[in-house]
Amino acid sequence: DIQMTQSPSSLSASVGDRVTITCRASQDIRNELGWYQQKPGKAPKRLIYAASSLQSGVPSRFSGSGSGTEFTLTISSLQPEDVATYYCLQHNNHPFTFGPGTKVDV
Amino acid sequence: QVQLVQSGAEVKKPGASVKLSCKASGYTLSIYYIHWVRQAPGQGLEWLGIINPSAGSTRYAQKLQGRVTMTRDTSTSTVYMELSSLRSEDTAIYYCARGVEVAAVRHSPPDYWGQGTLVTVSS
Fold this sequence. Notes:
The complex is a heterodimer of chains A (106) and B (123). Chain A is mainly β and 106 residues long. Chain A is built from no helices and 11 strands. In chain A, the strands form 2 sheets. In chain A, strands 2, 4, 5, 6, 9, 10 and 11 form a 7-stranded mixed beta sheet that branches. In chain A, strands 1-3-8-7 form a 4-stranded antiparallel beta sheet, with no helix packed on it. Chain B is mainly beta and 123 residues long. Chain B is 0% helix and 49% strand. Chain B has no helices and 10 strands. In chain B, the strands form 2 sheets. In chain B, strands 2-10-9-4-5-6 form a 6-stranded mixed beta sheet, with no helix packed on it. In chain B, strands 1-3-8-7 form a 4-stranded antiparallel beta sheet, with no helix packed on it. The chains are: A mainly beta (106), B mainly beta (123). Chain A binds chain B through residues 1, 32-34, 36, 38, 43-46, 49-50, 55, 87, 89, 91, 94-101, and chain B through 35, 37, 44-47, 49-50, 59-62, 95, 97, 106-111, 113-116.
């Protein structure tokens, strides 16, 4: 199985800060990675697909990059409503696997 | 608008089985894969498996092999996931989520998600 790791596991930043979350895969997954935002008590929400494509309706302060084994999710200017846990998901190979999550506080 | 509506909360005893449903609306069920994902209390997301509602074919996480069965009823646009021999560690919120079109060459991460079903396993 492909193992996904994320760093950091949690972070606290100020409103307006630039925030970067890293996801690493245990083997090459090309660009077959998505990013999700999950707020407490809610279902996950897709932010990014194909590593860098922004989901329709998602604010442009969110961006994704990377390919192969290393990927990043960037929030260019953190907002209070971005408090959530963020997960990456690889869909290159079965079984699909999520990263352990990064909790973001403001 | 695309919606996935899941069945209500369940409380089961260890060793029992549970069958969850996920009813799709706003699109044709058979055109898109459906994933199942769960989240134990305070934990991360765990991918459980996927069903092609057109063919009925499935892929399951190795961890659940032999205990999980995903099926569909295209006449009611509903997908089901049955989990047997329940254990306390199966206590979680179970989500269904829409994947890529079944005709696609490669998968993509699920876009639309159900509201989740809480399954509690307790004696």
